[in-house]
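Study this chain:
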Amino acid sequence: MSLTQKTLAELSHDFQSGNVSSREITEAFIKNIEEKNAEINAVVTPTFDQALEMADQADARQKNNALLSPLDGMPITLKDVVCTEGIRTTGCSNIIKNFVPPYSATVWKKLQSAGAVLLGKVNTDEFTMGSSTETSAFGVTNNPHDLTRVAGGSSGGSAASISAEFCTASVGTDTGGSIRQPAHFCGCTGLKVSYGRVSRYGVMPMASSLDTIGPLAKTVKDCAMMLQIMAGKDPCDATTPDVPVPDYIFSLNNSIKGLKIGVPEEYINEGISAETQQALETLKKLLSGMGATIEEISLPHTKYAIPVYYLIAPSEISANMARFDGVRFGEGFAGKNLKEIYTETRKKGFGDEVKRRILLGTYALSAGYYDAYYRKAQKVRTLIKQDFENIFQSYDAIIAPTSPTPAFEIGENTSDPLKMYMEDVLTIPASLAGIAGLSIPIQKSAGNLPIGVQILGPAFSEEKILNIGHQVQSQ
């Protein structure tokens, strides 16, 4: 087995034991990126020189028995919305294509302090707005399993960088499914954390009441190793509560015998492919065989999730994107007056999907429509959240398909925004509720495409869903 085929946990063990150097590991991943990134288009800003310096520093710590954490010396990538001091961070948008942040996001500071090695920034839908990485100003990321298909979105670059063996792990964001869906499409593991579990400070916002930051990696154990470093309260982010961070690694091997797990009937409908349903059945059998009880449940307000999300998220997008005006943020274009500068900057800087969501959100927030749209959507969001709360009074977790089908073809949905929005129909409810979700690969389709299933748990139950996922992957 080559170095790049190994999991984060395996490479960490080899490095900590002195069997391999961080430079050797890092150079192996760099070689893969140099050979294959042209056809995959996952890495948009490589940082190879810095990575090798970081690797050498990790090797020096290893020799002096002064390693910082299990992540020390491990090469990772970051979604290109995570600010990195001195390293270009573009949101994959033309409006800030040359932006170099003067500070780093908390999540990168934590990983950097733990000794992680940064190989580069990876592709995303523009400002994370999309389900296929097709809205990126750098072009689409191709699925490593089939280059004619999308890698998913918006964390398509993160998922593809795992699947293509470009790194040991990656940091993505999940606002409506943007970690779980790409993980499903690319055959890796992706964790959507509870809202507030990981600091959002220094990560470019999309919809502030929905955004979460989480890891993608080959396995659940790898994700647990990442989360151990990433999680926790941050004084720079008031939405991170003072909730203790458990030992995620220690909890992975707990027995799941006796757990009650629900399968929502609303998640199994005519839009779900037969192969996707078969993957869910496979998971149900695995869990039953380990002593868990599987029962059908109902989340009655699920059908309202898409319209609710596409009122709330664009409204918050409209507010967040207002700062990009060519004066405060964004590369400005010449104009005769301030209005013309704003107009030209946004017309040339933003892509179609960003403009579409700004228009939707601005309309929903406008005088005379706020109560009819945004306020009503927030009320229904509460009902969706209550559905989950009611179920979690009796059940430990929920399992469901991550996405209706395996990865679709590049260009298949670009001319139909509504069809594209429906790709998130199974991931959005958990995002609206602010709960934890984990997508794990289960099997392959007849066309050899990965199929994943998501495990959902109450807010701040990452310990439990990681445990369930790890037990499944250990079978």
Remarks:
- The chain has 15 helices and 13 strands.
- The two ends are 21 Å apart (CA to CA).
- The domain at 1-475 is CATH 3.90.1300.10 (Amidase signature (AS) enzymes).
